[in-house]
Structure formats: C-alpha cells, structure tokens
Amino acid sequence: MKLSCLLPVLLLVQSAYAQKNNTFLSETFNRQLETARWMVAYDSTAWRLSELITTVSWEELGRMGREWFCYKSEDSLWNGIFGKYKDGAYDVVLHYKIWPGDSIDVVCDPPDTAMLGGVSRAINTAYREAGFVLGRSYVKFNKFVRYHADKTVSVWLLPALQPNEIAMYGGEFYYLFDATGTRILGRQEYYQGSFKGFRLGKSREVQLHYEDADAPTQGAVFFALQYGRHFSGVYINTRRSTSLMAFSREKGYYWRHADKLKTSP
C-alpha cells in the first residue's frame, strides 16, 4: 500500500446535541464523534511516522507491505509498526514510538507476536472484503486500525485525500475481527456505486449526500472533522436528518442537527 495519509487537522469540536423531539440519535452520534477524533489523531500519527519511511533503504522498503499500522501502547504513547506479514509471521522492519515532548525514537523491543499476526491478518482481510464490494476502483484509501483490550481488532477503510487535494466521500468500510484477525465479528459497509468529492482551498459550504442512510455514517463525521477547516460549513444530509458542522467566533467549531421528519401538532 502506498504510504499516503491525510494531513493532520486538530479541531476543537463541541459535543453534539439533539433538539427536543428530534429523531436524531445523539448517543450514537457522540460515539461516532469520539471515534472521528481518534481517527484524526491516528491519521496525524500515521502521517508523521510514514514520512520517516522515505529515508530508509530500498532493501527495507522491499520488506514493507500494507500491513503497517499505528497503535497506543500500555503507556498511552503512539507507536508505528512497519513491516510485512509473510509465511505466517510478521517481519518487523521498523518500530517507532512518539515520546512525551514529541520526540520520535526507533524501538528495538519487538511488539507482541499475537498482536502483530492478528492485526496484519485483519488488515489484509478488510481490504479483501472491501474489494468484493468496490470492484475495480482508482480511489485511494487510508486505513485506521484499533487494537482493543480484549484483543479484537477494528479496521476502517476511508477515502484518502486524492491527488489535486480532492477530499472524497461515498464509500467506507468497517470490520471488527476476532483476536486472530480471520473471523469477522461485525461489519458496516457503505458504497452506492460512485464517489463524490470537493477540492480543498475554497471557502464554501459543502453538502454530503447520504439520503439513502437514516443517520450520518462514521466516514461522514470524520470528513467533517478532518476537512471542516477548509470549508465554511459541512452539511451531512441523510434520510431523516441534516447535520451541520460550522465555525463561529463565539462557539468555535460546533454541530447543529435538524430532523427532517415533521409530525402533526
């Protein structure tokens, strides 16, 4: 996999709220918002660490595959693992850690073998499953990997920032795997046959169309957090609601939700 990552965007976003009698599921949205914040942090970490890979030798690059990933260790510090899963084992080429104070060091102690195997198998299976839905596609994807305390693995595949700074949406994939990374415990796949996008750099409102969904998807919420500073407002239109992320001097970045389902008085 090409090491292409989205530029980090650190946004201060207020908690979502629902209007009275709104069918919008605020608890679900707040969970999505927390996951999207984690994704922004993950992406920032992946972008920084993958930049270091540009300095390694061709021999080391040849030993790396798309199974690279980031994770937080027990000390709550970000780590990046670069290597390849081959012949039933993970060949670790480089292991980076970001220390307090923002320094980055190479770590010599190998990570847990079971984690490496489970995560790498999960990554490869996620790409395979998404490929069954997408078919042939030239859209670049970024992955977000989360290794849980119970050793299960979550993998999200979302459109990366495309050439010419085109931010895209319309296809996203989530899979939850068991500890081995081979059995899918849950999935959420969204793709309606095409992608849409907006070029960054123009201060304007943008409309994300998800009218075939009842609520904002995880990818839609992440899109707003990751790219919101490039636009004057990001609308997420679903079958049942419209959500807006915008900025004001008084509130900072904030969310506003409106229910599309009108009831008789």
Summarize the structure.
The protein is α+β, with helices and mostly antiparallel strands. It has helices at residues 26-52, 58-62, 113-134, 218-227; strands at residues 69-72, 78-86, 89-98, 104-106, 141-147, 153-159, 166-177, 184-199, 205-210, 233-238, 241-248, 252-259. It has 4 helices and 12 strands.
Tally of helical runs: 4
pLDDT average, as an integer? 88
Rg calc: 19 Å
Report the uncertain regions: 1-23
The strand line-up of the biggest sheet is 1-2-3-4
Output the structural class.
alpha+beta
Multimeric status of the protein = single chain
Write the H/E string, N to C: HHEEEEHEEEEEHEEE
What spatial form do the alpha-carbon principal axes imply?
globular
Terminal residue distance = 55 Å
Please tally the β strands and state the result: 12
The amount of helix comes to 10-25%
Percent strand:
35-45%
Largest sheet: 4 strands, antiparallel
How is this structure best described in words?
By secondary structure, the protein is α+β, with helices and mostly antiparallel strands. The protein contains four helices and twelve strands. It has helices spanning 26-52, 58-62, 113-134, 218-227, and strands at 69-72, 78-86, 89-98, 104-106, 141-147, 153-159, 166-177, 184-199, 205-210, 233-238, 241-248, 252-259. The protein has a four-stranded antiparallel β-sheet. A four-stranded antiparallel β-sheet has the order 5-6-7-8, sandwiched between helices. Helix 1 packs across helix 4. The longest helix has 27 residues, at 26-52. The N and C termini lie far apart (55 Å).
What descriptors fit this protein?
265 residues; alpha+beta; four-stranded antiparallel β-sheet; 4 helices; 12 strands; 24% helix
